[in-house]
Specification:
The protein is built from 16 helices and 25 strands. The two termini are 40 Å apart.
Length: 576
Amino acid sequence: MNALNLGWHCKSLDSQTTLRCGTYPTCSHETNALAFKGSESMGHALKIPFGNTSARRRLRNHIHPPLRVVCVDYPRPDLDNSVNFLEAALLSSSFRSSPRPSKPLKVVIAGAGLAGLSTAKYLADAGHKPVLLEARDVLGGKVAAWKDDDGDWYETGLHIFFGAYPNVQNLFGELGINDRLQWKEHSMIFAMPNKPGEFSRFDFPEVLPAPLNGILAILKNNEMLTWPEKVKFAIGLLPAMIGGQAYVEAQDGFSVQEWMRKQGVPDRVTTEVFIAMSKALNFINPDELSMQCILIALNRFLQEKHGSKMAFLDGNPPERLCMPIVDHIQSLGGEVKLNSRIKKIELNDDGTVKRFLLNSGDVIEGDVYVFATPVDILKLLLPDNWKEIPYFKKLEKLVGVPVINVHIWFDRKLKNTYDHLLFSRSPLLSVYADMSQTCKEYYDPKQSMLELVFAPAEEWISRSDSEIIDATMGELAKLFPDEISADQSKAKIVKYHVVKTPRSVYKTIPDCEPCRPLQRSPIEGFYLAGDYTKQKYLASMEGAVLSGKLCTQAIVQDYELLVARGQRELTEATMG
């Protein structure tokens, strides 16, 4: 949570000079781009074990001129006609088409992650004046990223954009940046721990509609589950398929492991498939994760033809996703302020918010206030007068889960990988990807950069970076037996970054659902946004964006009440 230093960086990868899958020399192109350097993330540290990386990069660029790479990604799937996409589009359009307010509200929003950015964007669309405050110098919250001294980016997490993210997909379209998503083949690829270096695939045929494409993908895979296990799993899932959303929500009280056993599903199904899926969804194991989380994901993946199809962003999230949102907000008269950490929520005599006091000593006043920070930050700053209110008291059970994101640059191009997200099925690692293949901006024809999610991380979050890297290399030796060894006698580490997030998305354990708050709080003029608030996509980027739209919807619905409140306060102040 340390405050970071903001830097302006002139050399940036232009979208026209960093495409992939065919290489041609080109001149470097310079643009003015907001970049974040000299920064220190939550617990992150940079190590360069050996060698002069900067000199090596200059030498490499001399021998191999900057490259123009031609991309051959998969086309954007037909998402625009799905029911969920159309519902999301309707909600977006409701803000743009709503009557222009006679007195635009000044809405002060804490937190410039996706929830805060979404809230500010849609409030601006509705004709109001958001003022977005970010404590750090980095946009994006849980999708923040930093640039190191070599010009390489490292991120808070490995972010995947699913076809089943209708509000995120609408957001990209509204900003005119659909082309910044690199869609991959419709597959899920799992490492095989019992066969080091080998993978097992679930391939979703494009010619079939949902759920047939998903069912066939499962039936065709005979490496991970036997036919009897598939049958028992299918029978166990029948109540969820028949009972719909009501049944899914009722399973919140069971962990994945408990639910599977209750339904007669063999433990091996959990071991083979759902350890990896649980860690990918919430960074915890099936004995802790609420079954509701798994059922929601399965429902989206099986009911929407392209629901499980994945895309990578074509570069770093602050510039490629967050800055277009900021540009949109500012074009409509809104403000975005970095390095604006909130010290205290100051209250009026009636318990409503008077203003936000910043660490700098500045105060920010508005007509409406929104907290779009992680739930743990909200709980730290919650005024004493509010703590016993049931709406806020329930938040005690919502706690962020620790996660570690690891980036390792190797001295060679690794061969045993795919242009896709990979499920490691490792006890220490969750998912990983060779970002030098999957992402245009990070493309490198000579060296691999693996980005890996280290989870569960609770026992590792306080350990040293070198211990984490050593453990990671031990696991990578099993995934790349012919190319990586724990002692670096094969592929050697050029450098690495470790980004620790002690409190990431809320830990989706059983019986959390009743504790998730609605976006409209009982405090007049105070609202919440964040993936932990009540919305149907749980702890995800989609959930964060949707929460911002629901928060905006509540404020727009309350407009007359909020204006009357402001007039009342003005009258009282005048009379006083």
